## 1
Amino acid sequence: MSKMKDFGGGRDIISDLPDALIGHILSFLPTIEAVATTVLAKRWKPLLSFVHSLDFDDSLCLHPAKTNEEKRTNATSFMRFVDGVLALQGNARIYKFRLNGKHIINERWVLDWIQNVLKRDVSDIRLYVSSCSDGFDSSFYHLPPEIFVSQTLVTLIIMFEGDINISVEREVSLPKLKTLHLYHFKIKLSTFNKLISGCHALEELMMINWKWDESSEPEPCFVTIYLPSLKILEYCRFERYDEANDKVSLLFHNPKVVYLEFFDSIADRYQRVSFDSLVEARLGIRLTYDQVHDHLETEYYVSSKEKSNVTNLLTGICNVKILYLSDETLEVFGCCRDTIPVFNNLIELTIQTKPHIIWKPLPAMLNNCPNLVTLIFEGMHHIYSDRCEDEDGCLCRYPTNFVGGVVARPCLSSSPVKVLKILNFGEICDVHEDDVDDEDDEDEEFVYCLREQIEHVEYFIEKMPNLEQVILCYYTSNDEDVMKVFKKLENLPRVASTNCKIQLISDNLSLSCNVSD
């Protein structure tokens, strides 16, 4: 039996455990707490070399600082702490290295740390560096070349807000890499294709806010993502990264991808888009300033080339079952509504609405979703335009005497949707100047928006014959407003469904009722 040590009547059983087991236990603690145990006794000091998982977080290490000088001193102290821990461990094997640094003042130190852990056969690297204030342009920094030939890396997640370069001099070989997340990187298209070609086991790829380096690149420039093992793909480049996209052609051929998140401006060409196993997709495509050929009051016009590009992208994801469309995507779809493909497998559609975005593409979208079960609106923002007068130009209740006092909407009367859900119901939108008097305050603006949103919901209930459930998520603590909305919906004079349950959920209440034909 192991000898028990007695300290003031207590038994120190842990100190008698094997070194490797104590190191394993300490690996579950933040590294600053694991290091603190070394002051317990001489017995504990060398145990740090057995800690195989390092987790550094400068928010746990730094004292509150008021001046810039104090912040810089704190940051320097933290980086020296990381240096000291790595030095104490020597060449001991490490499995995981995680760094959350909000106040890193020199990213070159971070790149040195990466080299250190790569030499020790690390399998999991996760770096989140949100600022760099050393006065140097970090775009001159490059990831160490050793990172692209690691035979042990399984997970690599790096977020640098300073736009680090990726440069590959030799062939990439990452045979065990399954998860790759890279944020804020600058890379040549040819280098990216080389990088992807060396990741044969990759299952999850996230590319967030990359800059394409077009220097010395041939035209056209192709980005090829062909990974037979890939299951999750997130390709998100936001507006400040649009400048090079008009020369980029994308090729996606990923037969096993089940989740896709794609936010980008329209590429020069979608050479091929194929996602045969897609289950869920979030789509956010937008027009750049140069791609907008004619900006009318509420609509955009795009060229036939861009229209064809959007159609090719949609055709490649038309097997999807769950789809999210951003408000910018609605804007683009408005230019391509006559070429939207059929989504036979789609059962859930979420639509983000924002002020000044018209609903022109929604009728075509609903008509091309023959098996849609759940329709979700993220907000109920709507702006009237001349398109609202056409029966296939909108989903709103346009106040014109065509049929039954309003415009007929065949896409609603033939809709298979059973569940209608409205998120952010009652959210304030912009109001037209003619709709309110100059002295009207914010409360009256809210009343106007709420009344319009209630009318939209009433119209859906009146026209959609297969509705079984309507859910309104009304995030307010004003119970009186909630009750007024509920009573109005509860007493609808006309509904299309034989039996529909209406549920109104607020901060304090959850109300429901059944309405029927």
## 2
Amino acid sequence: MQNAEQRRLELQRKKQKLAELKSIRQKDEESRVQNLLRTNENGAAQNGASHRQTLSSEQMEEILREVGISAEPTIREESPAPPRGAHAENHLNPMSASASNPRISSLLSVDLEFSTVQTASTDNKDSAIYSKGTQTDDERISVGEFSLGSQEFDYDDDMIMPVDHGQFRGRAHSHDQDSPLPYNEEIAKLLGQAKHVDKALQRQDTEEKKSTHVQTVQPLSEEERNRLTLDPEFLDSFNRSCKVIGRALNEDIDIFINYTKDPYEKAVASDDLLHLAQVYYDETWTAKRLVTGMAFSEHHPDLLAVSYGPCDVPNEPPGVIVVWNTKSKRITAEFIVYCQSEIQSVAFARFHAHLLLAGCESGQICVWDNRLTSRKLPINRSPLTTQAHTQPVSCLAVVGTKNAHNFVSLSRDGRICSWNVDNLTQPVDGKELMTKEGKPASATRMSFPIGEMQTFVVGTDTGEILAASRNGADPAVIKTDVCYKGHSGTLTGIEFHRASGVVDFSHLFISSSHDWTIKLWSTKDANLKFSFESHPDLVLDVAWSPVHPAVFASIDADGNIFVWNLNEDVEGPVARLRAGAEGDTVYMNKLIWSADGKHVFVGDDEGRVHMYDVRESLYVLKSEEWNRFARVLSDMKESNEEAEKYNIFSIHISIIAYFPPLLPLNFISDVKRGNWCQSNYFV
């Protein structure tokens, strides 16, 4: 408002100045006319000729001849009434008109002179129309309310001067008079200033229009910043935006890819089947923590949930789960949650895309919702009752279909509970797993076949593998159907075959143990079993490839990672890699494959998750891989049968050789028939 008031006062001063100049000019014109009249009466023409340059008659005639005018006019004697075209002829030939008119002929003696002409040019502007819109707080007030292009001066530059005493001036221009130079210069100066002011206002108007589109951001106060940082919706939006930008900046596109190149060329030429691609680690949340569990999301296959054990730092939560984005080239933690108990196992809810499940050392089941990014603690947890778990929950599994599924948990005391994910107040059912001898099983690992939700296998501390079914007559006890014996140490890993193809291998499962061995089993054929004994230390985990029927991976306590391909070699791994620097021992604890079979993830005791790329030949399959693996299994079965016969025959020979005088004939015949162990005479 103050700027508008100043512009209004400035415009009033300019108007007043122009009005004063106009009145001065009018007075000058009136005085000039009066002076001319007086000089004509007093013979001012003769006085003026003394100080002005005059032309002689010869010079005048020469000038007229140059422009094509005759010096001797033709005079018409009889023409009392001029014809209709006389006006045009007189206009064309003024000398003839002057001869016929004695008044004009008396005025022909005119003294010509040179005069200095003062000129000033102004730009033509459109007339501005006054409206209510001009009475706003806009800087265009000055242009709209008062524009030099819209002002009309109330005088003419051309004036007809009076004629007296034989002097003819005709239409005299105002610049031909003795107008003072300061007056003309002042007008020109004022007009130039107005022109510059107009341009400056136009530039200011343009800058103001631009500035209206660019909004200046005012810094937030301390109170506003604190309020924003405590707003869950703002934090959720901010974190999501940061993740989106991070993914965009870290997107890796190979612009030199050659689609005409054989994809197997590099893999065949390379001797390395495993290549370390990434290490997922967070100094704040995962440092010095043991990796206790890993699980991939079926809805988002690039998300890997990793559970970590306690650390030695005081006031830190004992159980932490970090969800890593394995697709991003940048190490990105999508979600971080924790609880006040050590976490032993982790799983994604298969049919609830946003739920994350965990089994705790205290025996509780905890649930998080990753949509609530600002909440780190569980949204739901099971109670500590005898109906649920009272021992550490070592395994979790979500089995069944979308319309009929169960969330199953297994604790170290052999108790198996089924839960409804939406309600953890109490389990749907809870049963105790018993061995064939009727003793409680000390369970460590559990696995369900693909597409099965009733039958399962459980590994124990004693090395036995128990096969059972959740559907039993007893509502409180699950009795073991089959017991697989072969390991002599605690079971550390067990998993059913995961790859699906033209041949069904879902009856196969593998197990790892502290006895340094890996064993292959079948739920359909008890004679099909095989032992792999290449590890130099405790085997801590084993996992099937999700795409290749004959490939699995294993890790041991010495930091070795083995990749096995039974179609290539049944005696040893086709690839082996030692984690860590040379001379360092990394304690590998957990192993998992990515859903596409292209990566192997291994967790250690320092809070690191190592991602290894595998060779294309291990996940890009040929059609004969399935039939080839079936033949390999058949050969392994025959080898086991032959080895068993050879062992029995050796025992037969040893018994007959050492105890022939003491053995009756019927015992010897039983031994030869192969049923020596069923003989009543065997001691």
